[in-house]
Structures are given as structure tokens and as C-alpha cells.
Write a structure and sequence with these properties.
Length: about 290
């Protein structure tokens, strides 16, 4: 269980973008939401990452699956932060959060400290539960992946500018223990991104090579991301959100490694009904566990 400084508590999270920008899901997920096979109110939901201006990325709505590939027990994607921009979200989505009753975290990314500070300050007027700094997308500029001080500077600026708690999303290619230690007292949880293809499958050509290779998630990424969970949990005081849930038993295993909450991401691409089913099942087998 993670409890943020604003009182929000959660044990189950939907990773960035799995339920779109507003928690209702992508159009192909709506029938599952209407029938209750996806229940957004059982999770804390992270928006797809927003950038200051609209970003084309690699995703094309005429053929969205061209930037996604199946791997053994996982998924690779090279979406590349396609999004309609921060201003669009503030105008079109933020005012409806309270009405829909979803627990939302807004994921953001920018290229400089001043911009991320401004975005964080503007989010103070919204009904979100926290802000996630996505410092680790494997499909974009590598500056934040390679420069620990740049990540830390952004976190400090966000902490100074916003009233909301901050969640920091890191990658296995970061010096993640160093960054997390430097951010103690500034961020209230750490989430974990997908694993770059070149790390998960060194020397093997990616089916998404034309997009840069992409990031691997799901069970295929667990050897790297779960090692990161264990190291962060034993090295820092910041609660860790465990990624890569694929099977029901993965949730218990992540908690054994030290995760205080679990995150459902690419499983929504392959088995979108499983996260809700897993949470419901755990509520029955472990009545003391929260339902959201």
C-alpha cells in the first residue's frame, strides 16, 4: 500500500496510457468497460504521457498496431509519446475528473526544467492525485536516460512548483539508485518504465527496428524490472510501484520483492480484462486488501 502526502492511498495502478488520457480507455476498450470487465474505479490511473505541445510520435490511428509487437509473454511498443498536448488535456479532460470519480495521475514530460515547472504549477488547479514525471521513455531523446542530474533537477523544480505529490518514472538503464536517493523527500513513489529492446534482446533485431527498436514490457521484462524493484526497495525509502504484472501470482511476488503497489501496463494490450479480474480475485481471497 502506498499513501501519498495528500491522503490518497492505492495498491493497484494502471500504467501510463493503458486507459488513455481520461481513464475511460481507448475506443476498443470501451465495450469491456461498459460490461464491467474493465473497472477503472478499482485503480489509480496514470494518463498517457503529455508533452507541452502536441507530439506526432510513431502512432498512426489508421493502423495503431503497427507500433506494437508481441513478444513471448510480453509486448514491445514504439509509440514514441504520441499525444495531443498538455493544453488539450487541461481543457478537455481535467475538468471532468471529479465528475467521473476516477483517481487520476497526470504523466508529463518536457525537455527543460522551466517547462516542467510551469506544467506542474498549472496542474495544481486540477483534481488529480499526483503528477508522474516520465523521465524514461525508451522511444525518445536519450538525454534524461543518460543524465541523472537532469532528472534530479526536474524533480526539484516540480516539487517547488506543485501542490501535488510527485511520482518519478525511471528506467532500468538509469543509475536509478543514485537518482532515487537524491530524490528522497521530493518524490513519493517510483514507477518503472519498459525495458529498451536492446537491453532485453541484445544482438537480436527488433520487429519495430524502423521505429528505433521500442521498449519491452510484461513478463518478458521482469528479469530487469523486478531486479530494479528489489534494489530500489532495499536502497531507498521511496515506495516502489512494481511493474510487469502478467499472471495473478505476479502481484504477490512483487510484494515479496518490496513493491508497495503493483502496476498493470502492457497486459491491457494482450488481456485487457485480466487486471480487473485479478483485483476482484484478490479482494475475495484477501478481504483486507483495498479494491482501489
Amino acid at each position: 500500500m502506498i499513501q501519498l502526502s495528500n491522503g490518497h492511498r492505492f495498491e493497484y495502478m494502471v500504467a501510463s496510457g493503458a486507459l488513455a488520457y481520461d481513464g475511460r480507455g481507448w475506443p476498443w476498450e470501451w465495450p469491456l468497460r461498459w460490461t464491467g470487465l474493465i473497472d477503472p474505479k478499482r485503480f489509480t490511473i496514470v494518463t498517457k504521457t503529455l508533452t507541452p505541445k502536441p507530439r506526432r510520435g510513431n502512432l498512426r490511428w489508421s493502423h495503431p498496431w503497427s507500433v506494437i509487437a508481441n513478444t513471448p509473454n510480453g509486448v514491445a511498443n514504439a509509440i514514441g509519446l504520441t499525444n495531443p498536448g498538455f493544453d488539450w488535456w487541461l481543457k478537455s479532460v481535467a475538468p471532468k475528473i471529479a465528475h467521473r470519480g476516477y483517481d487520476m495521475v497526470c504523466s508529463i514530460m518536457a525537455d527543460d526544467v522551466a517547462t516542467i515547472s510551469t506544467m506542474s504549477e498549472r496542474l495544481s488547479k486540477t483534481d488529480i492525485r499526483a503528477i508522474e514525471l516520465n523521465a524514461s521513455c525508451p522511444n525518445t531523446d536519450k538525454e534524461l536516460l543518460e543524465n541523472a542530474s537532469a532528472v534530479i533537477d526536474m524533480v526539484r523544480a516540480m516539487h517547488a512548483a506543485s501542490k501535488h505529490p510527485i511520482i518519478l518514472k525511471l528506467s532500468v538503464v538509469h543509475n536509478y539508485v543514485e537518482i532515487a536517493k537524491a530524490c528522497e523527500g521530493l518524490v513519493e513513489a517510483v514507477s518503472i518504465n519498459s525495458v529498451p529492446w536492446s537491453v532485453a534482446y541484445p544482438g537480436q533485431p527488433s520487429p519495430l527496428a524502423r521505429f528505433g527498436g521500442g521498449g519491452v514490457s510484461g513478463k518478458a521484462a521482469q528479469p530487469w524490472t523486478w531486479k530494479m524493484v528489489r534494489e530500489l526497495a532495499t536502497s531507498t525509502s521511496i515506495p516502489v510501484i512494481g511493474p510487469g504484472v502478467w499472471d495473478y501470482t505476479d502481484m504477490a511476488r512483487l510484494r515479496e520483492l518490496g513493491a508497495k503497489a503493483v502496476s498493470f501496463g502492457s497486459i491491457f494490450l494482450r488481456y485487457p480484462w485480466r487486471p480487473t479480474a485479478y483485483v476482484k480475485r484478490e479482494a475475495i481471497t484477501n478481504p483486507s486488501s483495498p479494491s482501489r
